[in-house]
Amino acid sequence: MPKIIFRLLLSFIAFVTLFVLIRQFVIPDSFGKYGHYRANSIDDNKARPLFYKGEKKCIECHQDIYDLQSADVHSEISCETCHPPIINATSDCKLNIPELKGTIEFCAQCHTKNAAREAIGFPNIDIEEHKGNKNCIECHNPHAPWELTE
Amino acid sequence: MGTNRINKDRRKFFQTSAALIGGTLAFSIIKPLELLAQSKNEVAKDEKTEQPLWGMGVDIEKCIGCGKCVEACKLENNVPREPFYFRTWIEQYTVKKDGDVKIESPNGGIGGLKQSVPDEDIFKSFMVPKLCNHCTDAPCVQACPVGATYISPDGVVLVDETYCIGCSYCIQACPYGARFMNPVTKVADKCTFCYHRISKGLEPACVEVCPTDARIFGNLRDKKSDLVAFMQKHPTEVLKRHLNTSPRVFYNGLSSEVR
To answer: What is the domain count for chain B?
Structure first.
């Protein structure tokens, strides 16, 4: 074998080895386990913090309100729909009390007049016409809307 | 090239370099082999336990456009508050009597959608909640040059935040406009079906808060799940069927006006 070919072969092998070696270190451990991606990323996605705790957690302390709510028209609504957790309140809800909202604007989010709501028979009203500047919760109990106070 | 012509030093050099190269080669071959063996075992295990296949049903006949899902999604997934970034949003379609279609989605529907067309001009009006369709043949996954977006074994299209290079190819590739560039993390962001929740047995945040149960989440492989029941009860349709992306978000009551 001529000397130059031998040297060429040697350097070729050296480069391939170097390539394989570097590739080994650059590619993350779990890459290609399930497909063309890093399998550990699935666990990263699972590990994100949780904010909404679910109705079951609320019932642990507020069984009475839950019973009242499930007897009326708002029974389908989850607690956290109206009482969303405070941002970053991943720990105890007693330390970070969820928001309480009782303004007209808040009720109007669902109940203000809209042709799309009309079409599916959802109770929607002209808020201005309905009761002027009176706050909704002055007459309606938000947990049981048809238990009117007046 | 005779061996007698090589002096001792050169011989020694070749011997050590050959040993070094051979050693590294052998080492590098062993590791991928291990991985191969491992992945085979892993797949066999998965088949035994029967992975779920997550999907969502959206009932347009129930959606009232209150925007609670959009709010909940932003809170649960730390989506920036600005009105350009949404993992899910609601569009109001208003078909006027003269045939024009008006599509609006101010701030994605947060705070409740308001009708801007006067009542007398409206032929019909409906709400369409939108999100990532978690396609079986996802264009975004094909477009990603580094493998940072992928379909998980349980059928959810996810983003690898540490691997994404922020090239935005996936954002352009998505025919549903469901992806955006997160201004905080500087990587592509999208709906994950709240992967951190569903893997713990909870429902996605938007499903949890929906006051009219317009969103149904479940396992498509479980014949007793709410989602399968919903799909059996209603004639469902997917968005942009002609693109053959085979989405796993199914709509009931989808009008032809919806784009």
So the answer is: 2
